[in-house]
Each structure stands twice: as structure tokens, then as C-alpha cells.
Design brief:
Helix content: 55-70%
Radius of gyration: 32 Å
Keywords: Repeat
Domain NACHT: 292-409
Protein name: NACHT domain-containing protein
Shape: elongated
Length: 593
């Protein structure tokens, strides 16, 4: 028997990848009998509560799925995946009756597939449309599970249901199209049989086949055009809602901080070695529900922000790969900046989380839109509202990475102390991480991963003491990063000043020894050496009394280098820039300077 084509195998693989490990295990053994028993149990339960639903409406759908199972088992050689027909139905029966009632609509477009069995034996070309039909059913199930297997779907029920109905509209159109194509193929195959049995009907067959082929092609083009128009209309509506939400929230610019940090490490391997750290690998492992949090800490200047930017870029790659395979993963990040008033508070973090999630999750977008629509901007930006809405948004995700850098720079509003602001931020993050379902137990399906980075200040290490942690300046990978950086910069110094390998190796040794895990120290010292104008100035900086022993001394040598610049014009320009930076009421952009 022929194996299914590549598109069919991809559809099955995509559906399988979208399932959690728990769902894969439970779905594997599900059958029609399980669905029938579940329907009967549900009918009995609802009848006892006087809330009985007309689940008999699903009979056409169940019968259609039964016939589909019988046909695909025989002609598509996929007996190992037929459980995927029944398991989502049973799951959604137990979760949301309304989602299953919608399948009554699909029952209306299911053809009587068993009537095709004899034709499939003789005309294997019909198998192409049968494969497409089965793929459409799997896609419908996948979209259903994506909405109703979310941990917090009940919180956003109305938005979930509204979005679900719009999302499966395209699949319903596909099913209608495949039904019509199967019907056309059936007629064509029947005519071919007539021709084989009656040669005298050949001319009639050719004329009829041409007439049938043309409406079939026109019908297919019409369906494709209708679906594209519908998808475009839905996309335009979502874009309008998204723009409304973004203008209402007015979140700080979270992306520029990532871009700036990423630019600093572009072209180097700095930070990449953390990916091989066992603690980090456990945190990033999506197959487990343990290791949900990770605390990255270090002394000032260790390059934590650069490291975090590497992590975010890595997670973006993981997210893209997961989406290609059908697994829904979201990612949110934020860089606290104590010198910027719009990036140093808990509400700033919450606003950024919400804005990033509505870009990645159309179902959540409807929920946030409904919330924002009913409130003015002042109430929308209130702490209590943002904390609740952001918690709901994260709870609604099947798998979400949350990355927060510089939590020690969360200083809060003027009326709240720095210490209290950081405690409030940690409390909220931990409450989200440990959210419980309506029965008061942790949900196995909810999997939020939290990474927090910051300096040790007595508050963070106390509040995050139970989380796995990585001390950056002591990590072997980080020390090696400094060595690699020093080697690269010293080569540039060697080339500029024509020094020997002995002096170059001495520079590497002195810098790495004095750095004590501070990447910033290595950057400042080597940058100062490379920036010397002459070989004489360079040799002066290498003298023991001038070689910087710490970060403060390193900066002091940079200032001396600037103020002693023999070029009067450059010296005056440097003084003017320093004056502007010191006196400005806010941080200046480079283009302003």
C-alpha cells in the first residue's frame, strides 16, 4: 500500500507536536467507545442538574468521524493515528460542551465516506482528496485544543469562544470544499467505469468529464478566494483591536533595550556558553514541569544584561522552531532601567508583558480588548488592574518564557521605597509562577518559566533563595568569555602598536586576573589601551603604577586619556559632551549629543 504523501505526514506531525506529553499518552488509546460513553455520562450529569444539552445534535458528526476512521485506516495506512480523531472529541466533551456543539455544524458537511470504499479500491487518485479531508479534521482538532486546553481558558471564556468560532470558520470552508471535490471525483470515477464497461459511451464520457472538471476547478478557485477574503477581513479586525489595545496601554519601549544589548555582543560568542550550563538547560527544558524559575545574579559589571539578551535571542529561536512544529510557545521580556522613569516600576513590567502577549496570541487579544474597551485609560493603567490582567494573560498561555533583567533597578514610584518596590515585583512574579487552578491544585498543563537577573542587594537573594541560581562571575563559561574577549582585543592592540606575543600574553593575563568576573572591567581597560594615540602613550598605560586595578581606576584612566588628549579640538568637544551628559535632566540619546 502507498504511504501517505508529505503534506499528509506533516499535518499528522504538526498535530502530534501541538499536544502535551500528558495529552499524547491519554490520546493514544482513545476510541469511539470512549467518546460514546463520555457523551452518555455527560448527558446523565447534565440531566440531573437540569442543564441538559441536546448532544444528539452531534450524532451526524460522530457518524461522519466513524466513517472517516474506517476509510483512512484502510486506504491511508494510518491506523496508528486514528485515535487523534476521537481523543480531542472526548477531551473537549469533558472541558467545554459548547465547543462540541459546534461540531454539529461539521456534521452537516461530512460526506458519506463509506460509499467511496469501492471507488478507492479502483481509483487511488481519490485518495489525495481523502488525505486533504483528514488533514482538515486534524487542523480543526488542533485549533480546538489550542484554545480549550489552555490552563486559564475559563477566565477568558467569552473571548475564547468568540475567537474559536472565527478561527474554525476557515476549516469548515475547507471541509465543504473537500466534500465537493470528493463528490466530483466520485462522479468522474463512475463515468470512467461506465466507459470501461461501455466503449460506446466514450464520447459522452469525454464531454461530461470536461463539463465536470471545469465546475470543479471553478468551485475550488471560488472557495480559495472566499477563504482568503475571510482571512484578510479577520486579520484587519485583529489589527484594529491590537492598535486600540496598544494605544490604551501605552507601554514603554521594551524592544530598544534588547536591540541595544544585542548590538553590543554582535560578532562575538560572549554569553553563549551559558547555554551548556546544567542549571540553565534544566530551566529551558520544555518537557518537564520542574525548574520553573532561575535566578541569574552577579556583581556590577559582569555583563548580566548582555547575557540576558543572549538568552532572549536563544528563546526566540526556540519559539520559531516550536511554532513551525505546531507547538504554541510565547516569550516576554523586560529590562529594568533605574535612570528611565518609564522603565523602573512594576506597572512598566506589566504593561510590557501585556503588549508582547497580544502580539503573539490572537485569542488573548480579544480578551484584553474587551477589558480595555470598558475602562478609561487612567483605570487601565492602575496597578491593581494591570496586576490582575497580566496574571490572567500569563495564566492563559500553554507555555510561556518570562525574562526579567535588572530587577534590582526596580525603584518604584516616589512614595514607595526601592526595597518595597522590589519585594512587590518578586511577590507578583512568584504568584504568577505558582498560580493554582479552580480546584486549588497546580495545573500540569500550565508551564511558565521565569528567569530573573539582577545584582545581589540583600533583597533579591533573600526572596529568590528557593530558586535555582547561577552566580555569573563564578561560572566557568563566563570566565572563559572574558578570556576570549581579551584575546580578541589584544590581537587588535598587537597589530596597532606592533608588540610581541610576550607583551600581548601579559596584557591578557593582567586583565583577566584583575577583572574578577567583571566583563565591564575588561572592556574598559582594553578599550583604553586600544584607544591610545601613540606607542609611547600605550607603553605609559602598561606601567604598573598606571595599569588599573579595579573598575574605578579603569574609568579614571579613561578620563585622564580624554582630558590629556593633545588635540585641542577633540579635548574641547569631549568636555562639552561630558558637561551635557552630567547636566541633562534625563539620559540623552546619541543622536541628540
Amino acid at each position: 500500500m502507498e504511504e501517505p504523501d508529505e503534506s499528509f505526514r506533516s499535518a499528522v506531525a504538526r498535530f502530534r507536536a501541538s499536544l502535551t506529553d500528558k495529552q499524547r499518552a491519554e490520546f493514544q488509546t482513545c476510541s469511539l467507545r470512549h467518546v460514546q460513553d463520555t457523551i452518555q455520562q455527560l448527558q446523565n450529569t447534565l440531566a440531573a442538574q437540569r442543564r441538559q444539552r441536546n448532544l444528539q445534535r452531534m450524532s451526524k458528526f460522530v457518524e461522519g468521524m466513524k466513517q472517516l476512521r474506517q476509510v483512512v485506516e484502510v486506504f491511508l495506512n494510518v491506523d496508528s493515528t486514528v485515535a487523534f480523531i476521537w481523543a480531542p472529541i472526548k477531551f473537549l466533551l469533558l472541558v467545554c460542551v459548547l465547543a462540541l456543539i459546534s461540531r454539529a455544524e461539521i456534521g452537516d458537511v461530512l460526506p458519506g465516506l463509506t460509499q467511496y470504499r469501492s471507488l478507492l479500491d479502483k481509483h487511488p487518485q481519490i485518495k489525495v482528496h481523502l488525505e486533504s479531508y483528514y488533514c482538515a479534521v486534524l487542523e480543526f482538532h488542533r485549533k480546538s485544543l489550542d484554545v480549550f486546553s489552555r490552563p486559564g481558558w475559563k477566565t477568558a471564556f467569552h473571548s475564547s469562544w468568540k475567537t474559536f468560532k472565527s478561527r474554525f470558520g476557515g476549516t469548515l470552508t475547507d471541509l465543504k470544499r473537500y466534500r465537493d471535490l470528493l463528490s466530483d471525483e466520485k462522479i468522474t470515477a463512475t463515468i470512467i467505469e461506465v466507459r470501461e464497461s461501455r466503449q460506446s459511451m466514450e464520447e459522452f464520457h469525454q464531454s461530461m468529464k470536461g463539463k465536470l472538471d471545469e465546475p470543479s476547478r471553478n468551485l475550488q478557485e471560488l472557495h480559495i478566494g472566499d477563504r482568503e477574503s475571510e482571512e484578510l477581513r479577520c486579520r484587519e479586525q485583529l489589527d484594529k483591536k491590537r492598535q486600540f489595545v496598544l494605544s490604551k496601554l501605552d507601554a514603554p519601549d521594551y524592544y530598544s533595550d534588547l536591540e541595544r544589548a544585542s548590538n553590543e555582543q554582535r560578532g562575538t560568542t560572549s554569553g553563549e556558553r551559558i547555554f551548556s550550563h546544567p542549571t540553565f538547560q534544566q530551566w529551558m527544558d520544555m518537557s518537564t514541569v520542574e525548574h520553573r524559575s532561575l535566578y541569574l545574579h552577579g556583581i556590577p559589571g559582569t555583563g548580566k544584561t548582555i547575557l540576558v539578551s543572549r538568552v532572549v535571542e536563544k528563546l526566540k529561536q526556540l519559539q520559531a522552531t516550536s511554532q513551525e512544529s505546531g507547538c504554541s510557545t510565547t516569550l516576554v521580556y523586560f529590562f529594568f532601567k533605574h535612570s528611565q522613569s518609564d522603565k523602573r516600576t512594576l506597572p512598566a513590567l506589566l504593561l510590557s508583558i501585556l503588549c508582547q502577549l497580544v502580539f503573539q496570541d490572537d485569542v488573548l487579544l480579544d480578551h484584553v480588548y474587551r477589558k480595555c474597551l470598558s475602562l478609561d485609560q487612567h483605570k487601565v493603567r492602575s496597578n491593581a488592574f494591570l496586576e490582575d490582567l497580566a496574571a490572567e494573560a500569563l495564566k492563559f498561555q500553554r507555555f510561556c518564557f518570562v525574562v526579567v533583567d535588572g530587577l534590582d533597578e526596580c525603584v518604584g514610584e516616589s512614595q514607595v521605597s526601592r526595597e518595597q518596590s522590589q519585594r512587590d515585583a518578586v511577590d507578583w512574579l512568584e504568584s504568577v509562577l505558582g498560580q493554582r487552578d479552580s480546584q486549588g491544585t497546580d495545573s500540569d498543563d500550565r508551564n511558565i518559566r521565569l528567569l530573573v537577573s539582577g545584582q545581589r542587594n540583600g533583597i533579591l537573594e533573600e526572596r529568590l533563595s528557593s530558586s535555582p541560581n547561577i552566580q555569573v562571575e563564578l561560572a566557568g563559561a563566563h570566565i572563559r568569555d572574558i578570556e576570549v574577549y581579551a584575546e580578541a582585543k589584544s590581537l587588535m592592540i598587537q597589530k596597532k602598536f606592533s608588540i610581541g606575543d610576550e607583551i600581548r600574553n601579559d596584557i591578557i593575563k593582567r586583565v583577566c586576573s584583575a577583572a574578577q568576573g567583571m566583563f565591564l572591567y575588561a572592556k574598559v581597560v582594553l578599550g583604553n589601551l586600544l584607544g591610545q594615540l601613540t606607542r609611547g602613550h600605550f607603553k605609559r598605560e602598561l606601567k604598573a603604577e598606571n595599569f588599573q586595578k579595579g573598575l574605578d581606576e579603569a574609568y579614571e584612566r579613561v578620563v585622564i586619556h580624554v582630558l590629556e588628549n593633545p588635540d585641542q579640538g577633540e579635548r574641547d568637544a569631549a568636555k562639552n559632551i561630558l558637561g551635557l551628559v552630567i547636566c541633562a535632566e534625563r539620559p540623552l540619546m546619541w543622536k541628540e549629543i
